[in-house]
Amino acid sequence: MEEVEVVVAHSQRATLRIGDVFLKVDGDPAHADLEVRAMAMAPIPTPAILWREPPALAIAAVPGKALGVLGEPSAASPAAWAAAGAAIRRLHDAPLPPWPGPRLEDVTAELDSECAWLLANAVLPAEVIRRNREIAEVALGPWKPVFIHGDLQITHVFVDGDEVTGVIDWSEAAPGDAMFDLATLTLGHEERLDDLLAGYGADADRDVIRAWWSLRSLVASHWLIEHGFDPDAPGCEFEVLRSRMQEP
C-alpha cells in the first residue's frame, strides 16, 4: 500500500502525494480551471493531468527533483539553473494567456496594507520594513506584461541532471512582470541569480529583481504567519528582508 504524504495543507488548499500521483484539493475551483488552462498553453514541460473531479485535480509526478528548497543551499548545478532560466525565457516569450493579470495599483495597495500590518504587529523592526518598502518601490513601475508562472518558487521547478523536467503549480499564471518570476525563483538563493540569468538572457533588470525580493517578502509574511508557516526560518522571508539592510 502506498503511503499518503501531505505535501502542503492549509485552509485554502491541500496537496497530497500517493506514489507518483499528486492530488490537489482547492476550495476555489477557479484555481484548478486556470491551472489546467495555463499548463495547456505553457511551452515548457508541465505535469500530465490524470483526472479532474472538482474540487480535486490529480496530476502525475514529474521526473527528477526540485531545484532546491527555501532555507537550504541548492545542490543543483549552474547548468541546471541556466536550463531553468532558458525555460522561463521560453515561457515569457510565449503568447499571453487570455485572462487578466495583477494590476499595478492592486500590487501597490496590497504592499502598503501588508507593511501597515507588519508595523502594527511589530513582527520586524520598523526600519527593516521601511527600508524594504523603499527598495520595493523600484518594482512598482509599469511593466510590459509577459506570460508568467506567478508562483515560481524553487520547489516548483524540477530538474534531472542539467535538464528541466517539469514546472508545477500553475494556478497563479497570468500576464505579469517577467522579473517577478525570476525574483520568486531566486528568493533566498540570490547567489544563484547569475547562473539563472546565464540561461535567461542578459536583458533582465537586476534592480527590479532585487525590488521584487523585498516586495514579495513583505507581502507574503502575513499570510505565512496566519497559515502556520514560519517566515523567520533560516533563509526565508524575514532573513531576506534583514539582508537588504546591508546594501547601500
Automatic annotation (TrEMBL):
Gene Ontology molecular function, alphabetical: transferase activity
Organism lineage: Bacteria, Bacillati, Actinomycetota, Actinomycetes, Pseudonocardiales
Limits of the Aminoglycoside phosphotransferase domain: 37-211
Superkingdom of source: Bacteria
Protein name: Aminoglycoside phosphotransferase
InterPro entries for this protein: AGP_Transferase, Aminoglycoside_PTrfase, Kinase-like_dom_sf
Pfam families named in the record: APH (PF01636)
Keyword list, A-Z: Transferase
